[in-house]
Write a structure and sequence with these properties.
The complex is a heterodimer of chains A (519) and B (560).
Chain A lengths: L11 H12 L4 E2 H8 L3 H13 L3 E14 L1 H8 L3 H14 L6 H7 L4 H13 L3 E3 L5 E3 L5 H13 L4 E2 L5 H9 L11 E13 L1 H6 L16 H5 L27 H15 L3 E2 L5 E3 H4 L33 H11 L14 H4 L2 E3 L4 H8 L7 E10 L11 E10 L5 H16 L4 E5 L5 E11 L3 E11 L1 H4 L8 E6 L2 H8 L12 H6 L6
Parallel strand pairs in A: 7-10
Antiparallel strand pairs in A: 1-6, 2-5, 2-6, 3-4, 8-9, 10-11, 11-15, 12-13, 13-14, 14-15
Chain B lengths: L2 E5 H8 L5 H7 L5 E6 L5 E6 L10 H13 L17 E4 L9 E8 L5 H18 L6 E7 L7 E6 L5 E2 L8 E2 H7 L1 H6 L9 E5 L5 E4 L3 E2 L12 E8 L2 H17 L3 E8 L9 E4 L7 E4 H8 L5 H10 L3 E4 L3 E5 L10 H12 L19 H15 L3 E2 L5 E2 L1 H4 L26 E2 L4 H10 L7 E12 L7 E12 L5 H15 L3 E5 L5 E11 L2 E9 L1 H6 L6 E7 L2
Parallel strand pairs in B: 4-7, 4-14, 19-22
Antiparallel strand pairs in B: 1-3, 2-3, 5-13, 5-14, 6-13, 7-10, 8-9, 10-11, 11-12, 14-15, 16-18, 17-18, 20-21, 22-23, 23-27, 24-25, 25-26, 26-27
Helix pairs in contact in B: 1-3, 8-10, 9-10, 11-14
Classes of the chains: A alpha+beta (519), B alpha+beta (560).
Chain lengths: 519, 560
């Protein structure tokens, strides 16, 4: 924090801590601060935290000590008996009464957990303090158990309070570790903790504040309350000044998803340009997804490894006529489209095969078959599925922005005009280039490259005039532009994302942190 | 879209001029190509060719030929398409081939000494044509042989798998066809093409030497072409005569462009083919198309002189005859992509250069707008954001485990999954039937993001519906969850209530039982008496299945 801190903005707790340090020349540790300020440990730790961020305090020493203390179980052992002591005592008592005890009898008493008992019996047997005789009875040998005796000594010593582990001999340390609480076993008598003791001293800035500290902290108002306002008592009080340069707490707020917001802006841009939205189904027939777009059924992009097929039901009930017959005819020999067709046996059953929509153009194909308004402009932002390995550039499903423009004035030059408009409106690009391209359903076909003001040359989209083999069988007699925009790269750069999968991330923190980059 | 390797010096040689990478970039539009990678050291250039209908461009010879014709504004002539009379070499097809692999085309090429780069390119072309154009050898496969060792006539016929033996490429000893199909790597890869046939295709010469076992593998003795060879036989077999001939035409033209003299072969069939019972190959299958100049003018939006169109098309490789208002055009024999006058229009535009056309801005007035679903979604999204909910946006292809098992609805009426048949990974095998699992996934992955978590998503879901024409329905749905230590039914209900109020939808909650929710803390949402969704506190078993340690409630209902 570089800005000078005003003493008036200090919290009362901070003042207490500063004062305590001001009265001592040497650094003070947390426990010492507790002692000198009379505050609770948690209050001291809060105040120290604030003062550290304000650079009024600095860490002067740090020492880690390993401390041993008794657990709840340890206190019980100390007060009554450890398992091994209890075993010896019980067996002794029984033999005095002329009875014998078996392991089962000991377990049946329920004083200790069976695992604990087995460990102690094992230990006592190993150290020959007890032995097993015929019939499973236990017998005292009279030998002392070294471990049991050491445990007792340790319980007595640590009873007084936690002690550094270095106060104990190596042998004792071994036993302490063996009988200390670990993950998965909290029934042990000892606990070993690392305790870090930090010493703090005033920085120069802190030192310079000392003479100006208020005499008694706590008289100033920190929060204005309704009561203070109602009775007007705020007039006699002063308000503590805040450190307004501290970072505020974070809020959980409602917000649109940034990628969706990007697609919203595309959507509103398109409607403002006179485009009407179209929607379609996630599951489509091969007919609308591909056949209607004059992709022959043997097309290489229609193989099993290119499209997701639906399992069950695998086929649609029917394909509407006259579209099925007309499209089939166009594939076979061109029909009335003026084309010679693909010249193969069109399979009407295959046309009904259900797939996950593989291209947004399927939505346009459906629209063409609804006797759409002419002139007309349409768009869809359609979720599509591509059979690809998922990686940084391929998501399982993604959005395609595409559409059509119908009109009797449509030709290659109006197609270029529309693309030029997209370049200006979507990418704020003035420099554009057109390249010949290939799409199965358009001829001529164009690829649009633009010089984005910040990103340089990039491919923005592809378009073309729908082939008459597409439009005529669907009942459309005017020329139609089909266009598609590739906006994901722009979106990713706008959102500072490198991996396309992050557009749809399930990591809430990532979404909360995602924002438009101001390029 | 095939991607091929070409070499700068080889392209220079074929074009007859020194070319720079800048030239290549400039010419790529002529072949709808895109340079992917250039190696300065070796001069290797990786080019992606877009046009799946122009296999003639998937090789350096074809690319050079197209560029050359535009630069020279004329096309080289290939006399072997017009040579008359019988050929001195012949292939006899035997009865029975019509049921297995009916067609073969072949030619001889001599007088060109095979260079290393040319051989490499030949092999690449052979692979690309058989793989992409020939659908992994199913419809077309190609073989190259050393002509001098072959005694004509060659026979193309069927044999029993155990009868014929020869040494295949890549092996040292003779194998039967049966052994090749089960032991040779190519045999194993392509055996499927011949499955179901008890007699298999074979090409052998007049001395009984085997040329090849199409479409699997060539003989090592006759079919291993080496650098320095000057006499070649090229053979194509397949199931579609047009494709077989086209592939041979492309190969023959490539070799002719490198300087070889092409000698056609007669193929004699015991059965009729679309081109008769004796077919001389290579064969120009092209027909003259009469096209109207007006149609091209209309498509391109410019007025054109017949002469300029004729020049443009000639420069692109066409043969053109002009009359006043129409043109008679023929595409070269190595192309077969002229289906419609629009294809010709595009070639005119490409030759003239797309940048030479002045764009016309769209003039027609049209009304833009959103669908009802989309504008309703937008209203809901605005409200939910105002309520303090973070919007999420999820992928919708995932697993049965996420959509069904973790939601405790396996085997119940709520399980209405659209599943993929050709599963690549179980993680992407079903469409989401509801949005809530997407939000629970977020909650499961985000315990470290500070609380409270109020999340929502509006979007499409797909539900199995056997009555529907497409076997499923795509529905627009809205879902929200709240997750924090005090999250409960009452809180999420307040949000639902507020949403319904502002949307102007009156609704009722009907107490029901639903496996995803705690009994007594779940309701069916009904609008106008119709069930549209559920609201409730998630069952601890659901939360455990997602490994969520935070109380979570939620609702989801469809909005169309």
């Amino acid at each position: 924090m570089s800005s000078p801190t005003n003493t008036e903005s200090l919290h009362p707790l901070e003042i207490h801590v500063l004062k305590a340090l001001g009265e001592h020349d040497s650094p003070l540790t947390d426990p010492q601060l507790v002692e000198h300020t009379g505050l609770a440990a948690s209050q001291v730790s809060m105040a120290v935290g604030w003062l550290l961020t304000k650079d009024l305090l600095t860490l002067s020493s740090e020492k880690t000590t390993t401390l041993v203390s008794l657990t709840e179980v340890g206190s019980q052992f100390h007060q009554y008996a450890s398992p091994s002591e209890w075993i010896v005592q019980s067996v002794q008592k029984a033999s005095q009464e002329g009875k014998s005890l078996t392991v089962k009898d000991l377990q049946a008493s329920g004083t200790f957990q069976p695992t604990e008992l087995s460990r102690s019996i094992g230990l006592l047997k190993k150290e020959e303090a007890i032995q097993l005789v015929a019939g499973g009875a236990l017998e005292i040998t009279g030998n002392p158990s070294q471990t049991s005796d050491t445990l007792r000594t340790l319980l007595n010593r640590i009873k007084e309070g936690s002690q550094p582990i270095t106060c104990f001999s190596l042998e004792e340390q071994g036993i302490l570790r063996q009988y200390s609480v670990k993950r998965g076993n909290n029934l042990e008598p000892f606990r070993i903790d690392d305790q870090t003791e930090r010493g703090y001293r005033l920085t120069q800035a802190g030192q310079s504040l000392i003479p100006h500290l208020r005499k008694s902290a706590g008289e100033e108002i920190s929060q204005l309350t309704p009561e203070l306002l109602k009775d007007g008592s705020w007039r006699n009080r002063t308000f503590r000044k805040y450190s307004i340069s501290l970072r505020p707490p974070r809020l959980a707020v409602g917000r649109r998803h940034p990628y969706r917001e990007f697609l919203d802006s595309v959507k509103y841009k398109l409607t403002s340009m006179g485009f009407q939205e179209m929607r379609g189904e996630l599951v489509e027939t091969e007919f609308w997804d591909m056949d209607a777009l004059f992709m022959p059924q043997f097309h290489p992009a229609r193989a099993i490894h290119d499209v997701y097929f639906v399992k069950d039901p695998s086929h649609a009930k029917s394909i509407p006529e006259p579209f099925l017959s007309q499209v089939a005819q166009a594939h076979r020999d061109g029909g009335t489209t003026g084309s010679k067709g693909w010249n193969y046996q069109y399979d009407q059953e295959r046309a009904k095969r259900l797939v996950l929509r593989s291209q947004g153009t399927a939505v346009s194909a459906r629209t063409l078959a609804t006797n759409p308004q002419v002139p007309g402009k349409f768009f869809s932002i359609a979720r599509c599925f591509r059979y690809d390995q998922v990686d940084a550039t391929h998501a399982t499903d993604f959005f395609q922005v595409e559409g059509i423009v119908l009109g009797s004035d449509i030709n290659f030059r109006t197609l270029l005009g529309l693309l030029k408009l997209f370049a200006t409106e979507m990418a704020q690009a003035k420099d554009i280039r057109f390249f010949p391209a290939y799409f199965p359903f358009t001829e001529p076909s164009v690829e649009l490259h633009v010089r984005h003001p910040k990103l340089g040359w990039m491919e923005l989209g592809g378009a073309g005039l729908f082939r008459p083999e597409v439009t005529v069988p669907l009942g459309v007699t005017v020329p139609v532009i089909a266009w598609g925009l590739g906006l994901d790269r722009m979106a990713m750069i706008a959102l500072g994302i490198q991996d396309i999968r992050d557009l749809f991330t399930s990591d809430l923190e990532a979404v909360r942190n995602m924002r438009r980059q101001h390029l | 879209m095939p991607t091929i390797s070409i070499f700068q010096h080889d392209l220079s040689h074929l074009l007859g001029r020194t070319v720079s990478p800048a030239h290549i970039e400039e010419w790529m539009p002529l072949v709808k190509g895109e340079v992917k990678d250039v190696s300065q050291e070796t001069g290797e250039i990786r080019v992606e060719l877009q046009d799946t209908n122009r296999p003639d461009l998937w090789c350096v010879e074809g690319i050079a030929r197209q560029i050359r014709s535009v630069l020279n504004r004329s096309q080289a002539s290939y006399p072997y398409y017009t040579s008359r009379g019988h050929t001195k070499r012949r292939i006899q097809v035997l009865q029975g081939m019509e049921t297995v692999r009916p067609f073969v085309a072949a030619c001889a090429a001599s007088g060109y000494e095979m260079s290393e780069v040319a051989l490499e390119q030949c092999i690449q072309t052979q692979e690309k044509l058989a793989d992409t154009f020939g659908r992994k050898r199913e419809t077309v496969s190609i073989g190259l042989y050393r002509l001098a060792s072959i005694k004509f006539p060659v026979t193309y016929g069927l044999v029993k798998p155990q009868e014929a033996r020869f040494t295949p490429l890549g092996f040292d000893e003779k194998m039967t066809l049966q052994e090749i199909l089960t032991l040779h790597p190519k045999g194993m890869e392509y055996a499927g093409i011949l499955s179901g046939h008890d007699r298999l295709p074979l090409l052998w010469d007049a001395d009984g030497q085997v040329l090849s076992f199409p479409p699997i593998i060539n003989s090592r003795e006759l079919g291993e072409v080496k650098v320095g060879d000057t006499e070649l036989l090229v053979e194509v077999t397949g199931t579609d005569l047009t494709m077989v001939v086209l592939a041979l035409n492309i190969f023959a033209t490539n070799l002719a462009d490198r300087g070889a003299t092409i000698q056609p072969l007669d193929i004699s069939y015991p059965y009729e083919t679309p081109f008769g019972s004796t077919v001389k190959t290579p064969l120009d299958m092209g027909q003259a198309h009469r096209i109207s100049l007006h149609a091209i003018e209309q498509a391109l939006g410019v007025s054109l002189e017949a002469k300029s169109v004729s020049e443009a098309l000639t420069a692109y490789g066409y043969q053109v005859k002009t009359t006043r208002q129409s043109l008679s055009v023929r595409i070269p024999p190595y192309r077969n992509d002229l289906m419609h006058v629009m294809d010709v229009a595009e070639d005119v535009a490409i030759t003239q250069g797309y940048d030479s056309f002045t764009p016309i801005m769209p003039q027609s007035f049209t009304v833009g707008g959103l669908t009802v679903q989309e504008s309703t979604s937008d209203q809901i999204r605005d409200l939910m954001v105002g309520f303090g909910f973070q919007e999420m946006f999820s992928n919708i292809l995932s697993s049965r485990q996420e959509w069904v098992d973790r939601m405790r609805i396996a085997g119940t009426a709520y399980e209405r999954l659209v599943e993929v048949a050709n599963v690549m990974s179980l993680s992407y095998s079903c469409l989401r039937p509801s949005i809530l699992p997407c939000l629970l996934r977020v909650e499961a992955l985000s315990p470290r993001s500070f609380y409270p978590h109020l999340l929502f998503e509006v979007g499409e879901v797909a539900r199995l519906d056997r009555e529907a024409d497409l076997g499923s329905q795509t529905l627009m749905s809205v879902a929200a969850i709240n997750a924090h230590p005090g999250a409960n039914f009452s809180e999420i209900h307040s949000y639902l209530d507020l949403l319904m109020y502002y949307m102007g939808w009156s609704y009722e909650l009907e107490p029901v039982s639903h496996p995803s929710y705690l009994d007594g803390r779940v309701g069916q949402i009904r609008v106008k008496g119709q069930p549209v969704g559920f609201i409730g506190e998630f069952h601890p078993e659901v939360l455990e299945a997602w490994q969520i340690n935070m109380p979570t409630s939620g609702f989801e209902f469809q909005i169309d």
